[in-house]
Amino acid sequence: MSAQRACSASELEMDTPLRVELDGVAIAIVRDSNDEIHAIGDRCTHGDISLSEGFVEGETLECWAHGSRFSLITGQPLNLPAYEPVPVYVVQIDGDDVLIDPTVLKEV
């Protein structure tokens, strides 16, 4: 499979997650305060909660339900109750398009 358009970069608000679904895979896309765009799995590994409804701080995304924070760079949980990482996807930018292949994970 190849990367497909997930959204436009211009529609991403800083520190505000956007949920997209590509080929049945829910992904949270985040433009962080450093203007970097990240894509991680949208489901908290602790409580199966949508991470795109959570809070961004620096390079982390916090689950709104139980407070687990995940690294936007590695997908690793940074505190309990989550202990399993979420997937992190490769992001490509083509003009204003944010492209993601939901079958290709970022090597961290």
UniProtKB/TrEMBL annotation:
Domain Rieske: 4-100
Highest rank taxon of the organism: Bacteria
InterPro entries: Rieske_2Fe-2S, Rieske_2Fe-2S_sf
Keyword tags: 2Fe-2S, Iron, Iron-sulfur, Metal-binding
One Pfam family named in its UniProt record: Rieske
Protein name as it appears in the record: Rieske domain-containing protein
Record organism: Microbacterium suwonense
